[in-house]
Amino acid sequence: MKDKKSENINEIYDFLILGAGGTGLAAGMYAGRLGLKTLILGTSHSSELPIGGVITTTDIVENYPGFSKISGFELAKKIEEHARNCDLVKIKQEKAIEIKKEENFFLIKTEKNQYKTKTILFATGTKWRKLPETIKGAREFEKNGIHYCALCDALLYKNKTVAVLGGSNSAIKDALVLSKHAKKVYIIYRGEKIRAEPANLKKTKDKENIVIITKRNIVEIKGERFVESIILDYPYNQEKKLNIDGIFVAIGHTAISELAKPLGVELNKKGEIKIDHKTSETNIKGIFAAGDVTDKDFKQLITGVADGCTAAYHAYEYLTKTKLTLYDS
């Protein structure tokens, strides 16, 4: 008599990837070329993002080799198409909700199905960090004038005034996107100096409708139904109040590693998955991680793609050395 639990298993894989961003797709492509039966589970962290992940929200990418200028969405589609070209690779829009270790396999439960796999890659990425609750009005105006994706929502602010909160390269890129539509864009940063790539910073300074305000914090968001103004902790041009129509938040990201912790995967203080930077291996055999979810300092699409392919190779090596027979497709 068959075990009831085993009857619920939909399929068995050599390599299962959590996350269908650029990192996960590249890892899947490489794993398929190595002969691993591979499943990529998309929407593992955010149903708001399509296959391709965060890079799809980037207007123009100018630092990916082979493309002097390409939209983030188009680049993501090319990586996805490459992954789909391999018959051994499947991509499914399912959200993983639980992972358990069972003998030589990992059992992954989604909202729809259950799968078994011999190795796992966490390519779950990050989620946008939200405004702190210490800012009065931060929760009240969520989805009523507070946004996290400039490329997605810039058109809503044609000929209006907006603020970008943050001082990173992402904040600068958001401001550049918004400047194409908005009448005025304020960049508000608590630090003394904007931390952005020189090329992007120069573009920003060349834009007449972008104003950079440093050494200031937003302490309150005001309005009736939607955002109408913000209050700063220190005056700008003798005024603490700025009349704006929308706020775009670019204050960093939080690693999506919740499913890794119960497996005993080691995380750092920021919740990032700690990996061997040469092999993308975690402290748990058979579990790998790559991309923005890891503890690597430098995070770009190209580094995530490289680490994803590295993980696929070392998953193949692990399966071969441990004599876990590769799945016969």
Summarize this, please?
Helices cover 22% and strands 27% of the residues. By secondary structure, it is an alpha/beta fold.
SSE arrangement:
Blueprint: H1 4-7, E1 9-18, H2 22-33, E2 38-41, H3 72-84, E3 89-92, E4 96-102, E5 105-110, E6 114-122, E7 126-128, E8 146-147, H4 150-153, E9 161-165, H5 169-179, E10 184-189, H6 198-206, E11 210-214, E12 218-222, E13 229-236, E14 239-243, E15 246-249, E16 253-255, E17 287-289, H7 301-321
Parallel strand pairs: 1-2, 1-6, 2-3, 6-17, 8-15, 9-10, 9-15, 10-11
Antiparallel strand pairs: 4-5, 5-6, 7-16, 12-13, 13-14
Helix pairs in contact: 2-3, 2-7, 5-6
Description:
The protein is of the alpha/beta class and 329 residues long. The chain has 2 domains: 4-127 and 253-321, FAD/NAD(P)-binding domain (3-Layer(bba) Sandwich), CATH 3.50.50.60; 130-249, FAD/NAD(P)-binding domain (3-Layer(bba) Sandwich), CATH 3.50.50.60. It contains 7 helices and 17 strands. It has helices at 4-7, 22-33, 72-84, 150-153, 169-179, 198-206, 301-321, and strands at 9-18, 38-41, 89-92, 96-102, 105-110, 114-122, 126-128, 146-147, 161-165, 184-189, 210-214, 218-222, 229-236, 239-243, 246-249, 253-255, 287-289. Strands 1, 2, 3, 4, 5, 6 and 17 form a 7-stranded mixed sheet that branches. Strands 8-15-9-10-11 form a 5-stranded parallel sheet, with helices on one face. A hairpin with a 6-residue loop joins strand 12 (218-222) and strand 13 (229-236). The radius of gyration is 22 Å and the shape is elongated. Mean pLDDT is 92; it is low at 1-7.
